[in-house]
Design brief:
Blueprint lengths: L8 E5 L3 H13 L4 E5 L16 E2 L10 H20 L3 E3 L2 E5 L2 H14 L6 E4 H7 L7 E5 L3 E3 L1 H14 L3 E3 L4 E6 L4 E5 L4 E4 L1 E4 L5 H7 L6 E13 L1 H4 L5 E4 L11 E4 L5 E4 L3 E2 L13 H8 L2 H22 L1 H11 L8 E14 L9 E5 L2 E6 L4 H21 L1
Helix pairs in contact: 1-5, 1-11, 2-11, 9-10
The structure holds flavin-adenine dinucleotide.
């Protein structure tokens, strides 16, 4: 970091969209800050933030009193403003969440009733559904007209460029392996032996967030489990069958939204992601096993309790991952005219999902604090949509640390 001056020093660990949006908010709130962003990779957004569905969520899925709901609604507004200012394509294409039977229709109606005071949405019948998505099957749908798509990786890279142009520092290819606290300053140790001190450190480590919290002496009570999401790109024939975002009715017992079809901000369309427990937190190739990560998952009691509760859906996901025909069946349920030959695999993403020792999925964002440190421990979807609002919240908490 820069030579010590009277300027307050803030170090942000993690250059995903959450770390970068936090940095952006901090520099706007405290223009005189000496801010450094550090990541173990060679540039921004190389994990979750650059490997997702690109859906700008409207906030329809979340309990209205949750952080997810609050930050998604606010983050959506801030993200749109940022993209408009920065000329980053953000396409409002609308979403239909599709129901096939009475049970699914009732579930969608509950989502509608719980959130229609916050999010513009309407229950529609099959005829109206076909006007919006002529190739979509389904008896009814929940229509969310404001849902949009954007390239979150592009948003993160733009923030990073702006920070660097504004005179702030970025350190790449350094992995935090130790965190020390004293009354005077916070210190991190990197794998290379390099040490950095700061007045405040903000950890936004995504898939490694629980480990960073433990390194700092916190006991976060949750473990991050990695769930790989595989995608297929649609060829131009199949992409024409999709006008916006086509989602299945979500299973209320699971945090993932199900395999869906979505347009891309730069043109074209994709389908995915499934949700398969991964043998490595960053093992994007399904055949690569990371011993440390696998041990961390399988030696954790919460994982086994989670498997016991969800073994049937876990097995289905595994089968769907190994058998393209099953994956295609999930897609064809939504748009029957799509065929296996229309789909080409694209790189997978891996979601960081916090699970407690009882095997319960931690369903909200989780931010922990101790003197001189703020840790974003759980920031799963819709954290890319919500990032600017999470950043706003952390900047406001940071001001208390910096004035202490
Ligand atoms: C398959 C998939 C689909 C998704 N779809 C959507 C969607 O459509 N809409 C939406 O809003 N959200 C979506 N999400 C969620 C969203 O992408 C994530 O919630 C968000 O990107 C999290 O950002 P982050 O900055 O917390 O984490 P990340 O982007 O993972 O960044 C964390 C960073 O920390 C760095 N790091 C970790 N440990 C260390 C260390 N020890 N030292 C130094 N650096 C470290 C990593 O290298 C990484 O760059 C999806 C996620 C996935 C995986």
């Amino acid at each position: 970091m820069k030579a010590h001056s009277s300027r307050k020093r803030v170090l942000i660990v993690g250059a995903g969209i959450v770390g970068l949006a936090t940095a952006w908010n901090l520099t706007r709130r405290f223009p005189d800050l000496d801010l450094t962003i550090l990541d173990k990779e060679s540039g921004p957004a190389l994990h979750q933030s650059g490997r997702n569905s690109g859906v700008v969520h409207s906030g329809i899925y979340y309990q209205s009193d949750s952080l997810k709901s609050r930050f998604c609604l606010r983050g959506n507004v801030l993200l749109r403003e940022f993209c408009l200012r920065e000329n980053i394509p953000l396409e409002t294409c609308g979403k239909v969440i599709v129901a096939f039977g009475d049970d699914e229709t009732a579930r969608l109606r509950r989502l509608h009733d719980n959130n229609s005071h916050l999010v513009s949405c309407a229950m529609i019948g099959g005829e109206h559904l076909r006007e919006l998505e002529p190739h979509c099957a389904g008896r009814a749908a929940l229509h969310v007209p404001d849902a949009a798509v954007v390239d979150f990786g592009a948003v993160a890279r733009r923030i990073s460029e702006k920070l660097l142009r504004g005179g702030h520092a970025a350190i790449w290819n350094e992995t935090v392996v130790g965190v020390e606290q004293s009354a005077a300053a916070q210190r991190i140790r990197c794998g290379s032996g390099r040490e950095l001190t700061s007045d405040l450190i903000i950890f936004c480590g995504g898939l490694q967030a629980d480990r960073l919290a433990v390194l700092a002496g916190l006991n976060p009570a949750v473990r991050i489990l990695p769930f790989r999401g595989e995608y297929f790109r649609l060829n131009s024939r199949a992409a024409q069958l999709v006008n916006g975002l086509i989602y299945p009715a979500p299973d209320p017992a699971l945090p993932f939204l199900g395999v869906h079809l979505h347009r891309l901000a730069g043109g074209g369309a994709e389908c995915g992601p499934n949700a398969v427990l991964s043998f490595g937190r960053e093992s994007y190739d399904a055949n690569v096993l990371n011993m440390r990560d696998a041990a961390s998952t399988f030696l954790f009691g919460g994982s086994w309790r989670l498997f016991k509760r969800h073994w049937r859906s876990g097995l289905d996901e595994l089968r769907r991952s190994h058998d393209k025909a099953r994956f295609v069946d999930s897609v064809r349920r939504l748009v029957p005219d799509i065929a296996a030959a229309d789909l080409t695999p694209r790189t997978a993403g891996i979601r960081a999902q916090a699970v407690d020792k009882h095997g319960r999925l931690f369903n909200d964002f989780l931010i922990l604090e101790q003197a001189g440190q703020i840790h974003v421990v759980n920031a799963p979807s819709p954290a890319a949509t919500a990032a600017c609002a999470i950043g706003e919240e952390i900047a406001s908490r940071a001001s208390q640390h910096l004035s202490a």
